[in-house]
Amino acid sequence: MGHTVIEKIFMNHSSDEVRPGNIVWLDIDTRTARDFGGPNVVKRLESVYGEDVALADPLKTYFTFDCVVPANNIPYANNQQLCRVFAREKGMKVFDVDSGIGSHVAVEQGLCWPGSIYVGTDSHLNILGAVGCFGQGMGDADIAFAFKTGRTWFEVPETIKVTFKGEPYQFPVTAKDLTLWTLRNLGSRGALGCAVEFTGDVIDTLSMHERITLSSMVTEMGGIIGFIQPNEKILNHFQKVTGNNAVSMPLPDADAVYSRAIEIDIAGLKPQIACPPKPDNVKDVEDVAGRPVNGVFIGSCTNGRVEDFHAAAKIFSRFPVHEGVMAKAVPATKGVFGELLADGTIATLYNAGVIISNPGCGGCASGQIGMTGKGEVQISTSNRNFRGKQGDGDTYLASPVVAAVCAVTGKITDPVAFLKEGVSR
Amino acid sequence: MKFSGRIWVLTGQDGRLIDDIDTDMIFHNRYLAETDIAKMGQYALDNLAGWEDFAKKALPGDIVIAGRNFGAGSSRQQAVDCFKSLKISLLIAESFGAIYKRNAINSAFPILEAPGISDADFVNGDMVEVDSATGEISGRDGKRFKARPFPQVQADILSAGGLFQYARRLER
Ligand code: SF4
Question: Sign of torsion, CA A103 A107 A113 A114?
């Protein structure tokens, strides 16, 4: 009986028998805590083991601050400082408030790699399935245990295979539309409790940022993680940043056992939008076009990469933000910000009237810009639109292109129609 | 490990086990400020229709049987601790919410998965014996059901008395 990708990663990190339903101990490659949850991890460690607690391996243990960065209130400032002092004493590295979203820092800096196991206090760490890493968010007790022992236990999940069929999409349709379309097909419980393997011709052609977008929303499908088999380019990236020539990703066996196989047809994919108040309330943009828009947020771990801002800049380089619309851009990391600065994208956004913030989670974690007030309508490129998550207003989820076009017209607008007909404002 | 005690079968009006009992039904968020485990028991299940008086009726050593996806919802530890507080000895369910399961195992509260148990005809007040190593549930009146035995990890954490106690053991 063959094994799926998650089973193979577990087998490489465990001496227990790996079979769906079994609980196994895993040796963790990297454990992290962010500014949300991090202070609780420290307090728990110190209360259980005392202040001189020794970590299993400080060089595999990190803080990544990304929620409220830099701190804009005193409790967060205190909490971040508490983590810094702890890190200094233990010899851990801190990716501080200037770094950006932890999961993206991990990908850029090689804290994770294909085939590795990475845990932390961020519930969207399963995004790392995009590069073939088993990433997982956990509570502060679990992460304190991981800091202390370098291990965690996990129940081996069943795996669903999702295969995409049909011609690849083209601009202005993007990976976010593919992602929302997948969510529309699977629903919010479609992958409940399962690991997912995404396959199909279109998947092979996706570049890193597109894979990140797709894997980032497996949480919203109820799944534990969504894996995409890394291509040559991604393996090369990790060889470079980890300095390890042996980075290799396990392949699923030909006779791997899947609990279900699902096919999703993407032929003729149109721009998609998730309407409030649930991420799986997905419609064609053209079917909800016309509602006035007050704000736009481009960023988050789902759509905060260089290419996401380039896509938005294709619109903003030709059209300015509509009067009265507050358009906000938050690059995922310092590295992303630097690239956008160097290639002129920041200037393009600025000249179009977009507000640009320092890297981090932005309004997604209610830490920085991007929140809405009651009655406000915002188009966001993030991954959750539950009531209250990004403020009291109505949040729609869409791609950076859809968000940019809405910013320009001041209403929900289908980018295909917009670009065909020219400007209708 | 062996358990023996009187059972509470969490059924609804239709007589079937209730599915998807979430953490707000188990321990409502209006009590979240409570941090003293000793005081949590009184609120257990008081937001579950038909079971509001559970805490008054339950006795130390009792065993609870629930339906599918027990403990869905939030990650609050109180939803586990309120049963500890009442000294419930074992919680059996068709299946558990993933976070609830982690919380229960990490805090050394015994839970047992028993897929299919809704078809067994256990009723409130039956006296049962449970062997967690084999998963065998046997009633004094001869009723029998085979649940999933405790996985090794769960047994290890349980015998250590919790995740952190288990960690201490790893160091030795
Ligand atoms: S951007 Fe939002 S979803 Fe992503 S890690 Fe930050 S807070 Fe979580």
Answer: positive
The whole-angstrom separation of Cα A121 and Cα A285 is 34
Residue A41: name the closest of A82, A94, A74 by CA: A82
What are the structural domains, with CATH classification, of chain A?
5-155 (3.30.499.10), 159-265 (3.40.1060.10), 272-421 (3.30.499.10)
Decide: A144 and A38 in contact? Cβ < 8 Å. no
Terminal CA-to-CA distance of chain A, rounded, Å? 60
Q: Model-level pTM?
A: 0.91
H/E stretch holding A2 reads: none
Instruction: Quote the tokens at residue B161.
Output: 């008395």
Which residue of chain A is at minimal alpha-carbon distance from B169? A149
**pLDDT (tens place) for every residue of chain A, 425 residues total:** 899 999 999 999 999 999 999 999 999 999 999 998 899 999 999 999 999 999 999 999 999 999 999 998 898 999 999 999 999 999 999 999 999 999 999 999 999 999 999 999 988 899 999 999 999 998 888 999 999 999 999 999 999 999 999 999 999 999 999 999 999 999 988 898 899 999 999 999 999 999 999 999 998 998 999 999 999 999 999 999 998 766 778 999 999 999 999 999 999 999 999 999 999 999 999 999 999 999 999 999 999 999 999 999 999 999 999 999 999 999 999 999 999 999 999 999 999 999 999 999 987 776 667 788 899 999 999 999 887 777 889 999 999 999 999 999 999 999 999 999 765 44
What single-letter DSSP state applies at residue B103? H
Residues B138, B122: Cα–Cα separation, whole Å? 10
With tokens 């990469």, the residue in question is: A305
- Taking the CA of residue B48 and the nearest CA in chain A, the distance in Å comes to 23
CA atoms in the 13 A half-sphere facing the CB of A233? 7
SS3 A180: helix
Q: Cβ of A22 and B75 within 8 Å?
A: no
Strands (E), A266-403: 272-274, 282-284, 295-299, 326-330, 355-356, 377-380, 394-397
Q: Nearest by CB to A142, which of B101, B106, B152?
A: B106
Tell whether A153 lies on the interface with B, counting CB pairs under 8 A.
Answer: yes
**B133 near A CB under 8 A:** no
Question: The complex's ipTM?
Answer: 0.80
Nearest atom (ligand 1) to Cα of A302: 4
Domains of chain B: 2-171 (3.20.19.10)
CB–CB of A24/A140 below 8 Å?
Answer: no
